[in-house]
Each structure stands twice: as structure tokens, then as C-alpha cells.
Design goal:
This protein is of the alpha/beta class and about 290 residues long. The protein has 2 domains: about 180 residues, P-loop containing nucleotide triphosphate hydrolases (Rossmann fold, 3-Layer(aba) Sandwich); about 45 residues, no CATH class. About 40% of the residues lie in helices and about 20% in strands. The strands form 2 sheets. It has a 6-stranded mixed beta sheet with strand order 6-7-8-3-9-10, with helices on both faces. The protein has a 4-stranded antiparallel beta sheet with strand order 2-1-4-5, covered by helices on one side. The protein starts with a strand and ends with a helix. Bound molecules: adenosine-5'-triphosphate. Adenosine-5'-triphosphate binds next to helix 1. It is a peripheral membrane protein. It comes from Faecalicatena fissicatena. This is ABC transporter ATP-binding protein. Belongs to the ABC transporter superfamily.
């Protein structure tokens, strides 16, 4: 069964004259890790708002077409039930932090309290998640006094604490340093192994190439490309649609232009190294 299915979906924010989503058709399968990429203003966050049900519950505007989440029409979902199925890490961690809790512990525990989890389980879960996200030393701090990067980790922690089957994650590493970014991606990889369906908006294309199963590219409110990460990210035509391809793929194409064709276009550095080594081996073999 499709996890989320969109048929002829268009959406306009209130008072806006333009469509933020324009006739979007796509079937997202359960257990897959989707990277959502594309130009600024292309509609990525709007797609996340829709998948999470914030459109039309919170953002009114004009929505047409059919949106099915786990087989059920979006408008038929009870908002509380939907939020127990789909976790949403917002683009801006300052929006995500509730502002009403006095410690990081309480902030992360809040969602679980609302779900009726026992006190012992909550303590256990919060401690485990804080260790995972390397924020144990922040546990007693006030969430409103954290740096952007610390808030981003806490916001992420409070969503994974909810243990939802579907996660929508909008630029989770925008405030993080390279190590912090790597840490978050390793956790996302672990969540994927647990069978969760993940939607990730991210501009860091090399990370999308390394971690995602599938990629959709958005431009002007439309999904202009969609398919396996390999198929999409090796396609140079992406550059004509406001998206970039990974450095490894650029290298593969440039070598090809110079007559040095690899077996396939690599999308990660690791693959590029393997394919170039293989090519050098073939060359060396031909000469003897
Ligand atoms: N709350 C809003 N009200 C009115 N228009 C909006 C609102 N949010 C976004 N838009 C418009 O909808 C379109 C899609 O915006 P969206 O934020 O979904 O793009 P995006 O691909 O996530 O961009 P970015 O990469 O900059 O985050 C843009 O034209 C934007 O101006």
C-alpha cells in the first residue's frame, strides 16, 4: 500500500495569487527514504505541510485534488490521530520549540506525556534519545536559552521521541556544523533501518546522494523529476531545473566529455573512487 498518494493536487496559500503546489501527482511508498530537493520557493516546505496535514488544518487556502495518507483521505483524518502517525521537524527550530517548557527534558517528554506513556518509560526514552543526539549536558537547560544548533538537536529529539511511523524532516541540519550534520544523518539512517518512511528536505545534495533511496525534484510547485536517487542524481538535466547534482556525478560527466567513460555515473565519492580505480585497472590491463 502506498504511504502517501497525491493525485492532481494543487494548493494556493490564502491571499496568494500563485499556486505553491501545481498539479502534483506522486505515490510515496512505505519504508522508503525520500529526498526532496529543488530551487528556493519550489514548493518543498509546502509539500511537507500537506503531507503532515498542516494544509488544510492550519494553512487554509485553496486545496484541490486527492491526498491519501495510509489509504485514508486527508480531510477524514482526525488531527490528533494524524500527528501520532507523522512527526514533523520544522525548517526553523525556533518555531518547533514549544516555548512553554522550562527544561530540555520537559520539552522532549511533552509529546509522550500527551500520548499517555508511563513516567518510567518517559524518563528512559528521554535519556536514551539525549544520548543518541549528544545533548545529555543540555537536559536541565531552558530550551529558550539554547543556540540555533542546540535547538535544532532538541527539536529533532522531541520528534523522534514520538516514535511515529512517518517522519517529515525539513532541513534538519541548517544550523549544524559538519559533525552535527553527520550525527543527524546517521540517526536518520538508523530510523530508516527501523522501517520508518522518511521525507527529508535538504539542500546538501551530497548527503541526499549518500543516504536517500528516492529523490523528488520540485520546481514552480511541480514535481519535475522523481525516482531512484541513482537515476535522478546522475541526470545533468537537473541543473536546468534549479537543482544540483552531486560532485561525484559532475566528475563522472566531465570525464565522459573528455573521452574517459566510467561504467556508470557515480553519485557518491565512494562510488567515484571505485569506478575510477576500475577504469584505471582496465586501462593498465589494455596496455600490457
Ligand atoms: N505562508 C505562506 N503564505 C503565502 N505564500 C507562501 C507561504 N509559504 C510559502 N509561500 C509561497 O509558496 C511557494 C512555495 O514555497 P515553499 O516554502 O514551499 O518553497 P521551498 O521549496 O520550501 O523553498 P526554500 O528552499 O526557500 O525553503 C513560494 O512561492 C512561497 O513564496
Amino acid at each position: 500500500m502506498a504511504c502517501i498518494e497525491l493525485k492532481n493536487v494543487s494548493y494556493q496559500y490564502p491571499l496568494s495569487k500563485e499556486k505553491a503546489l501545481d498539479d502534483v501527482n506522486y505515490k510515496f511508498e512505505k519504508g522508503r527514504f525520500y529526498g526532496i530537493i529543488g530551487e528556493n520557493g519550489g514548493g518543498k516546505t509546502t509539500l511537507c505541510n500537506l503531507i503532515r496535514g498542516l494544509i488544510p488544518q492550519f494553512y487554509k487556502g485553496k486545496l484541490t485534488g486527492t491526498v491519501k495518507i495510509l489509504g485514508k483521505e486527508l480531510r477524514e483524518w482526525d488531527p490528533a490521530e494524524l500527528s501520532s502517525k507523522i512527526g514533523y521537524v520544522f525548517q526553523n527550530p525556533f518555531t518547533q520549540i514549544s516555548g512553554i517548557k522550562e527544561t530540555v527534558f520537559e520539552e522532549i517528554a511533552m509529546g509522550m506525556e500527551n500520548m499517555g506513556v508511563t513516567k518510567e518509560q518517559i524518563i528512559d526514552q528521554v535519556v536514551t534519545i539525549c544520548q543518541l543526539l549528544k545533548i545529555e549536558d543540555l537536559i536541565e537547560k531552558n530550551p529558550n536559552e539554547l543556540s540555533g544548533g542546540q535547538r535544532q538537536r532538541v527539536a529533532f529529539a522531541s520528534i523522534i521521541a514520538m516514535n511515529t511511523d512517518i517522519l517529515v524532516i525539513d532541513e534538519p541540519t541548517s544550523q549544524l556544523d559538519p559533525q552535527g550534520t553527520q550525527d543527524i544523518f546517521e540517526i536518520i539512517r538508523m530510523l530508516k533501518k527501523e522501517g520508518k518512511t522518511i521525507f527529508l528536505v535538504e539542500h546538501k545534495i551530497n548527503l541526499i546522494a549518500e543516504y536517500c533511496d528516492e529523490v523528488v525534484v520540485m520546481e514552480g510547485g511541480k514535481i519535475v523529476f522523481g525516482g531512484t536517487a541513482r537515476g535522478i542524481l546522475s541526470n545533468r538535466d537537473l541543473e536546468n531545473h534549479g537543482a544540483m547534482i552531486p560532485e561525484a556525478a559532475v566528475l563522472g560527466h566531465q570525464l565522459k566529455e573528455q573521452g574517459i567513460e566510467l561504467d556508470s555515473i557515480p553519485i557518491t565519492t565512494e562510488e567515484a573512487v571505485r569506478l575510477i580505480k576500475q577504469r584505471i585497472g582496465e586501462e593498465y590491463g589494455n596496455r600490457i
